[in-house]
Amino acid sequence: AMAGFNINHIDLAPQYAGILMGITNSVATIPGIIGPLIAKTIAHKPMGSEEDYQSMYKEEWREVFIIAAEVYLFGAVVYLILGEGKRQWWAGGSKGIERKRTEYKE
To answer: Among positive and negative, which fits the CA dihedral 42, 47, 50, 52?
Structure first.
């Protein structure tokens, strides 16, 4: 999955692959920041006897992992449906824009 994701920037716009990687990597960092906060909210270790709350604590962590799996699955489905490796019209500089304009005229 990572190999396809990383090479896709070069396929889309070779001249701007670094910029695209920076933007997408910055956006992808947000779940890494928010994820632990959500996990802490969902699966907090209750006060009291360990035996009394052990099964409840396991269920809370199960919910955290199910949510994580759903997020990954959603991302994979969106990428499979919308992802493509075609060079973008804006990636060719001024020549690419001119080429796109002539394609519309034909």
So the answer is: negative
